[in-house]
Fold each of these.
Amino acid sequence: MAERRLLIAGNWKMNGLRSEAVVLASDLASRLQQSGPDGVDLLLCPPATLVWAVGQVVEGSGVLLGGQDCHAEAKGAHTGDIAAPMLAEAGCGFVIVGHSERRQNHRESDPVVAAKAAAANRAGLTAIICVGETEAERDRGEAKAVVARQLAGSIPPGSSAATTVIAYEPVWAIGTGRSASIGDVAEMHAHIRVELDRHLTGALDVRILYGGSVKPGNARELLALADVDGALVGGASLVADDFWAIALSCR
Ligand code: 13P
């Protein structure tokens, strides 16, 4: 097993206009060029309209680029959607699929997420497949079963550590300021690692990110956990100082 490089990913969601995005991305790019944390990959996932502009700003800096969603097909009559080859052409190496906001707001099922991840892989992109239970599911003691089911349904056949990142994002921790407890994160990430072995090759090499109210104040504790290989950061990724502080918190 190779050492897993940590991945700190910023999911900007539906935030940012060009001028502020360029300032944020160039700030992070120049910090990374000057004194990047060792063994850490930094990834920005801006909204689709900003992928090109952010890509130009970060080119050559080491900051990686990703999309927030892609369609399961490479092209066609799908108004408003974006295809994985379009993201790849724009400089992306990654795409988030199955974020809980897409699962909830767009009724995306596990098979849809798996088809999107497969499309991402066909376009040469690494799929960041998101899983995570709702608060009601956790309260009923179903968190592990829900995540196991999501993994089984959302990881396409033929996946490997080279094509796949998993993001565990408990729905109730997203945007609430209420991160999952350290113990719960450790337990769930270990569970995900075991489950991954059933669905892809090289489970020990897959990066498993935690997401949900990651902030400079809790990042160090979370990132020190054995099976936490990075973070998927929402709100705090929109503030250069906060996102950078999270990156610097890596073990
Ligand atoms: P917050 O960091 O704002 O809680 O969002 C997490 C998230 O959904 C990242 O994909």
Amino acid sequence: MSSSSGKKERLYKVLVVGELGAGKTSIIKRYVHQFFSQHYRATIGVDFALKVLRWDPDTVVRLQLWDIAGQERFGSMTRVYYKEAVGAFVVFDVTRSATLEAVPKWKADLDAKVALPDGRPIPTVLLANKSDQPKEGIAANREKMNEFCQQQGFSAWFETSAKDNINIDESANFLVSKILEMDKWSQEPLAPDPDKVELTANGKHKGAAPSNCAC
Ligand code: GTP
Ligand code: MG
């Protein structure tokens, strides 16, 4: 969407998934409302939040955040919730390794049910939340986490704390930059300009950037 002043506005749907109590709602509350509470109230179904970012002097990005209840992993609604999303966070709790063990299931659920319009997986960032607390299992091992992140096809992973406001803006900015990259790519005309795009024989973009792990 472009306004008459030449400024661009983008609206992106971003999913936030992960096990019960991993901190999805807390991360969103911190990011959007600069607020944190110790009090746990499980999300039922899905909640929404909107974050408006002045990305650069010409671009306003509106992030529509879909806060999906951890209990939905066993439900049948995720297919409906995931529709038309262009990015995602998978959140786990560093103090409970079972929440990390469930990450591949969440990632597989995303990959099975949502993709970019050209079929590529949506950029997804892994958040190791509650990093203000002592870590359990491989969450404490950076190298293993890098490996896990790469194997699972995440764009990157960040240690976050909704409580202490660690890496919340940074991880969101990273995901937005990935989304913008993908969006730019999809808007490129399929022009036969060798300096701009490489074409395959059937006229499609060649090797549309495999998920490369920034970890
Ligand atoms: P569901 O809605 O059930 O899927 O859970 P959720 O992932 O939305 O978790 P929620 O944000 O409700 O947080 C669960 C509990 O963890 C709450 O008591 C939060 O206060 C606590 N919590 C969340 N983030 C952090 C954090 O970064 N550090 C600490 N110490 N506690 C956190
Ligand atoms: Mg919640």
